[in-house]
Design a protein that fits this description.
Strand order of the largest sheet: 1-2
GO molecular function, one term: hydrolase activity
Keywords: Hydrolase
Protein name: Hydrolase
Mean pLDDT: 86
Number of helices: 2
Largest sheet: 2 strands, antiparallel
Order of helices and strands: EEHH
Pfam family, one: Cys_rich_CPCC
Organism: Candidatus Wallbacteria bacterium HGW-Wallbacteria-1
Distance between the termini: 33 Å
Number of strands: 2
Strand content: under 5%
Low-confidence stretches: 93-106
Radius of gyration: 18 Å
Length: about 110
């Protein structure tokens, strides 16, 4: 099951912002926020350094947290996430609560 935000965008596997127009994994779409190129091989093996990117997905995630891009070379190309790319901060309304009296133990 894939998750989208309220605008129908999919989450980037590197920066976790919703920048992908399709579910991640072999879209080869480049995220404008972290400049990670979506590569299914690297998503399936996050320590793999080959493929579409010069660094592994795990290293790219650390790099993004440290300096805001998947790699130092990509820093000039990144931008701040816009409102449509942010995660949804509202939770769906509660449909009910579970009470102790609702539990049935045999």
């Amino acid at each position: 099951m894939s998750v989208t935000n309220r605008y129908g965008l999919f989450k980037c596997p590197c920066c976790d912002f919703f920048t992908l127009p399709e579910q991640s994994g072999n879209t080869f779409f480049t995220c404008p926020v972290c400049f990670w190129e979506d590569d299914g091989v690297q998503q399936n093996d996050p320590n793999y350094t080959g493929g579409a990117n010069g660094v592994s997905l795990n290293d790219a995630r650390c790099n993004y947290r440290e300096f805001g891009a998947c790699s130092k070379e990509m820093q000039p190309f990144v931008r701040v996430a816009n409102k449509r790319e942010q995660p949804d901060l509202t939770l769906p309304p509660k449909t009910g609560t579970l009470e102790m009296r609702d539990l049935h133990v045999e």
